[in-house]
Amino acid sequence: MQETNQKQRFSQARIAMECAVDGRSGISLADVVENAALQTRVDKKFLLTPEQFRRFTNRLGPEFSVMQINGLRTFQYRSTYFDTPDFEQYVAHRQGRRRRYKVRSRTYVESELCMFEIKTKGLRGATVKHRREQPIADAHVLTPENLEFAAQVLAEEYGHKMPKLVPALRNAYRRATLVDPVDGERVTCDVDLRYADADGVVHGPDMVIVETKTAHGRGISDAALAELNIRPVSMSKYCLGVATLNPQLPANKWSRLLSRLNWERTAA
β-strand 200-203 against 208-214: which pairing, if any? Predict the structure, then answer.
């Protein structure tokens, strides 16, 4: 019964996302990589109800296509995040430190592709993503090759040494990606967010997490959201997960946001 209720709870966000991508032209992954890779970019996150999401996507013109792979337009993402045993990077993000980073492994389920990534903050808050492909079998571990790669990035970007990292969090969600290949703008739309730990699974709210990824932070999608009076929120899926699964940690930066969201835990 609990599982059935959970599926019903997510139905509106999932339906809104499926409807938004159904009528748009498709764009291949190769074309997305060629025209809208944006490894250095300005990211803005927004939290939308299903109805707000419908109004937002209705404002995006036909120049926005939807990424399509083998006939599929929505995809499962699974991530493992690595942090120090005392959550050093969670704390850095909570305190708003300029030199902060995230280390993660991301699996694109349908494509059977797995990437090891380290995301750093560049000039003026721009996000810089460094990544390398890895076997899916290594998704939840830090291999010597990935440690060397991450250490090199931290040394070059910040002059920092790599601390001891351990698996800190797993999350999963379903994503659709809208792309304007002319301007290189991307909009990711995530639903069915969930986190897992040894005690079970925590399910996120029946909302759509929208993230705009543009070169300068002033894209068509940003303007459409502003016209609807929808403001960006300071949030990180990683940090929300850590705060939710570890209530003993300070989370004052996201306390108001966390209080808005209806989390539901199911047993392992």
Answer: unpaired
Nearest-angstrom CA–CA distance, 224 and 221: 5
pLDDT of amino acid 31: 85
pLDDT single digits (tens) 27-48: 998 888 877 665 556 889 999 9
Q: How do residues 87-134 score in pLDDT, each as one tens digit?
A: 999 999 888 888 889 999 999 999 899 999 999 986 666 778 899 999
- Residue whose structure tokens are 């931290």: 154
> What does the alpha-carbon distance between residue 245 and residue 265 come to, in Å, rounded to a whole number?
10
Contact predicate 25/66, CB 8 Å: yes
Phi-psi domain of 124 (left: phi exceeds 0; alpha: psi -120 through 50; beta: other)? left
The alpha-carbon radius of gyration of the chain (Å, integer) is 18
Confidence of residue 3 (pLDDT cuts 50, 70, 90): very low
pTM reported for the whole predicted model: 0.85
Q: Are 50 and 208 in contact (CB under 8 A)?
A: yes
